[in-house]
Amino acid sequence: MAKNLQFIEQNIGLAHPINQQGNSKEIQSHMENEQHSLAARLAAGEHAAATELVDRNYQQIYLFMRRLGHSRQVSEDLTQETFLKAWRHIGQLRDGTALSSWLYRIGSNVSKLYWRKHKSRETSYTETLDQPDSGITERHKVEYYEQLSRLKIAVERLPFKLRQAIVLHYMQHLSIAKAAEVTCIRQGTFKSRLNRALKILRKHVSE
Amino acid sequence: MKEEQLKKALNELAKAGEEPVHPDLAEDIKHHIPHTLNPHKRGMNTINIIIDLRINKLVAAAIIITTMILLAHFFSGREIPGDSIFKDSKMLAAYFLRGNANNSDLSAVRSRYKYLLKRGEQAVYYGDKANLNDSRTVLLQWKLPDGNYRVITGDWQEKTVDAEQLIELLSYMLQEK
Question: Which residues contact B60 (CB under 8 A, 6 or more apart)?
C-alpha cells in the first residue's frame, strides 16, 4: 500500500495542497466582508441572497454529502434540504463571517439524521472514482483504483463523527479551526478525533 | 503506512471522488426556496431573544411549565381559584426573574425534579429561588393524576395539596419576596 501511495503521489500530484492557508490577508478580509454582507441580506429575507448562497456553495455541499457516503440521488436531496433549512433558520446565524461553516453544520446534521433514519443503507459512491491521469500504465491504474477504493471503504466504515472529521479536513480542505467550528467542538477535541480516525484508517488499509 | 502518506492518499481520494454536479441541481434548489421566509424564523428569533437576554434556563423552563399547567387547567374546564391565568403567570414570572438564589444543598430535590421531568410529569422546581427552612415555601411541585399536587416544602417535607392550597403557598412565596 505504501509503495502504491508513493507512486500515486509521484505520478499524479495532489489535487489540493493539504490545509490550504488561503491567500493574503486582504483577500481573506474581503471574503469575510462579502460573507458578512450576504448573511445580512439573508437575515433580511432577501430571496436573491438565498439564490446567491446556493450558487456559491451547492457544489461543495453536494460533494460533502457524496464524501460522507451518500448516493448521487440522496446527495442531491440532502443538498437541497441543507439550503432550505439554512433559509428557514437564517435567524439563528450569529456571525455572518461564519456562513460557510454554518452551512456545513446544517449539512452535517442533515446527513446524520439521514443515516439515523436509514441505518441499513450501505454507503456507495465507489463507482464514481475517476481513473488517474494519462502517463500511468494500465497495471498501475488498476492498483491505483484498488487502493483508493480500499481507503474509501475504510473511510465509509468509520463512525459518523470520525468520518465527518476526515471529510471536512482532508477532503473538503477546511482548516482545523473551521472544521472544529462546524462540528461545534474545541480544536483540541477535533484534532484528537482526527487522530483517532487516522489510526483506524491506517489499521484498515494496512491489513 | 506512514501518517503523511495516508493524509495524501485521502487527498487523492477527494480528488478521485470529484464528479460533475447535476446541472439542474442549483436551479432545483432555488426553485424550492420559498420567496418569503418560513414562520420558523420568527419562532426561532423569539428563542434567540430569550438566549440573548441570558435568562436562566431553569427559570425559562419553570415559566413555560407553569404556563402549561395553567393552560391545562383552563382547557380541562376546571377553574383555578384565585386570579386570572394571566395575572398568575405574570406574578410567577416576576417572582422568578427577581431571583433569590440560595445555593444550599438542593441537589436531591433537583435530581427528583429531573427524574420527574424525564417521566413526563408536570413538575416545577423553585429550589434555587426559594427561601429555605420555611414550611410554606415550595421547593418542588408536580401534578398528580387526581388533579392534586405533590409538593416538597422548605422544611424538606413532602405533602399532597390541592390547587387552592398550592396557590396559597405560591401567593405566600410571592408576598415574601
Answer: B50
